[in-house]
Design goal:
The protein is built from eleven helices and no strands. It is mostly helical and about 260 residues long.
Length: about 260
């Protein structure tokens, strides 16, 4: 029987190949309409496709996709926080897919209304500390630094609640209906508790202290630094934007619960 890891890799390779085929089909149409020689174009494109499929870049994309699937669900607290702080709890969507136009621009310069993905990761480290295998460095959390047992208990409570939202799947894949999770009042209360606690902690350390902690995490994160994932320094506006997102999420969750 095909393992879950092998199945995930096979599906990832299929997705990459389908995207490449769509691009090639459009490229061929444009070349032929421009009068290019069909036989020569087909030979060149087929050779390029064969080479591209086996390139280190393509295999790297597939590997990253597989790793994301393997790690999905490891940080269930973070997943709930991200949903309410950056996607549902604000008037505009603040988090975009990895290296989308919006995300890439926010990595290059501060962009009002957009949280770059690396900043989102360090925000989550502020809540629960570095978490392997998601984070390849060690760091203590800002929120639960003095009472990590509280976070552990909270995570276990969430895990128990999630059992109510598992679907009838038996393949080993994630079977949680996250849409129902985010709409459930119990999870909304947990999210509100987390957001409120973090907002109070940030008020204690101040915006500059919050930014300093984020930069500490970045300095420890040598694996991501070496890949130039973030193309600028974090600035005070980044920290302020996170604080505003937390306040907005706090208000939204309070309204939902009440």
């Amino acid at each position: 029987m095909e393992s879950f890891e092998d199945k995930t890799r096979r599906l990832a390779e299929q997705i990459c190949e389908e995207q490449l085929k769509m691009f090639i089909a459009m490229l061929k149409d444009n070349l032929f309409q421009a009068g290019a020689n069909r036989d020569m174009c087909n030979m060149a494109i087929n050779a390029t496709m064969h080479e591209f499929k086996r390139s280190p870049y393509t295999q790297g994309v597939v590997t990253e996709y597989v790793q994301v699937e393997e790690n999905r669900g490891v940080d269930i607290v973070g997943r709930i926080l991200v949903e309410f702080c950056f996607l549902r709890g604000t008037s505009v969507k603040m988090l975009w897919p990895e290296y989308s136009d919006e995300d890439f621009k926010a990595r290059q310069q501060f962009t009002d209304g957009v949280i770059p993905r690396p900043l989102m990761r360090y925000f989550l480290v502020c809540v629960r500390g570095a978490l392997h295998p998601l984070d390849k460095f060690d760091a203590s959390p800002l929120l639960y630094e003095e009472d990590y047992g509280r976070y552990d208990a909270l995570k276990q409570d969430i895990g128990v609640l999630l059992e109510d939202f598992k679907g009838p799947f038996g393949s080993g894949e994630s079977a949680i209906d996250w849409g129902r999770v985010y709409s459930d009042a119990r999870f909304q209360k947990i999210a509100l508790e987390l957001v409120s606690d973090l907002r109070l902690k940030i008020d204690d350390v101040g915006t500059d202290g919050f930014l300093e902690r984020i930069n500490q995490y970045r300095s420890l994160d040598t694996d991501y630094q070496s890949n130039n994932v973030m193309h600028r320094a974090f600035c005070r506006e980044d920290a302020i934007q996170l604080e505003m997102a937390l306040t907005s999420a706090q208000n939204t969750l309070s309204e939902l619960i009440n």
